[in-house]
Amino acid sequence: MTFETLGWQGLVILVVFGLSLLIATYCTYAERVIAAFMQDRVGPDRAGPYGLAQPLADAVKMFTKEEFFPGGASKALFTLGPCLAMTTALMSSAVIPFGNAMQFGDTSVHLQGIEINVGMLYIFGVVSLGVYGVMIGGWASNNKFSLLGAIRAASQNISYELAMGLALIAVLMISGTLSLREITLQQTNPGAWHLGDIFAWNVFKQPIGFIIFLVCAFAETNRTPFDLPECETELVGGYHTEYSSMKLGLYLFSEYINILVVTAVMSVLYFGGFNYPFQYEFLDFLSNKAGLSADWAHNIFVLMGVVAMFMKIFMGIFFFMWVRWTLPRFRYDQLMRLGWTILIPLAIFNILLTGGLITTGIIK
């Protein structure tokens, strides 16, 4: 890899991290607007036109609020908890392919922080570390409600990671690779008719696996109806009860970054990632009818894939918010029963079913 290519990839990494933070910040605004619309009330409308400056006002408030350390708390671990949660959330976005490679002469730039052939394994490893941020914060607070919330979060994440991992094994059986970019590229069918690309998406080959992954994604991100670690009616505020200022902000922002990451992974694994309908007809139009050079046609084609990828991500984020303001919270025993007695056996059945379909040649 040349120095110029390293410079381009460094720029891509900075852009990915910056976009992750920006989207997480404005997810707080979107959450309020969607909640207001669904509850037939006025949402944020004071800070800036249509309330668009509300996230910036919230950030200023978080940075300027008084720092608070509970009595008897471990200050070092109390500070480490939210930092670890935010760091792992940002790290997990590094291997997601937001677009295909762009071409600038002899230089090829992948719209992906880092391309590794075990990208899915990397995400699972980093996401598994995120629970330590929650556990450390809850334990270091010296508060029984925070500790109970942290224990709930740890047991919930461990339980649903098993079902999610089993659901992804079926995808790996079809794709034969752990590289997220390769999985995306396999979900395309250049020789098919106009909408053939859509039917090459894994959601049509793995409908059961997708449903399992979706349910586990809600549990992994601690979102309603699985927000038991933050159960306000029982645990005050859960594991971040004692947090204030920007340390609380890091926990809140890391949750939205995790939502961004899980919807991006869902888009890559099941909805074709940066592939979109009529993409090869569009490329043919740019190359042969619009009269553009090969590089320009290819780069516009790639940028449209980036737009398609983010449209899928935003639709996923909207779905997460819609569910939050629609469904009631599970009881904790219902949560654990669903994970251990329903999702895990269903995921194992899905693996056996996928293996049978591959053996008989129905799925290729």
UniProtKB/TrEMBL annotation:
It is a multi-pass membrane protein. Its main location: membrane. The chain crosses the membrane at residues 6-29, 77-99, 119-140, 160-178, 198-219, 256-276, 296-323, 335-363. GO terms for biological process: aerobic respiration. InterPro entries: NADH_UbQ_OxRdtase_su1/FPO (IPR001694), NADH_UbQ_OxRdtase_su1_CS (IPR018086). It catalyses: a quinone + NADH + 5 H(+)(in) = a quinol + NAD(+) + 4 H(+)(out). Its EC number is 7.1.1.-. PROSITE patterns: COMPLEX1_ND1_1, COMPLEX1_ND1_2. Signal peptide: none annotated. Pfam families: NADHdh. Keywords: Cell membrane, Membrane, NAD, Quinone, Translocase, Transmembrane, Transmembrane helix, Ubiquinone. GO terms for molecular function: NADH dehydrogenase activity; oxidoreductase activity, acting on NAD(P)H, quinone or similar compound as acceptor; quinone binding. One of its GO terms (cellular component) is plasma membrane. It is found in: Cell membrane; Membrane. NDH-1 is composed of 14 different subunits. Subunits NuoA, H, J, K, L, M, N constitute the membrane sector of the complex. Belongs to the complex I subunit 1 family. HAMAP family: NDH1_NuoH (MF_01350). NDH-1 shuttles electrons from NADH, via FMN and iron-sulfur (Fe-S) centers, to quinones in the respiratory chain. The immediate electron acceptor for the enzyme in this species is believed to be ubiquinone. Couples the redox reaction to proton translocation (for every two electrons transferred, four hydrogen ions are translocated across the cytoplasmic membrane), and thus conserves the redox energy in a proton gradient. This subunit may bind ubiquinone. This is NADH-quinone oxidoreductase subunit H. It comes from Hymenobacter coccineus.
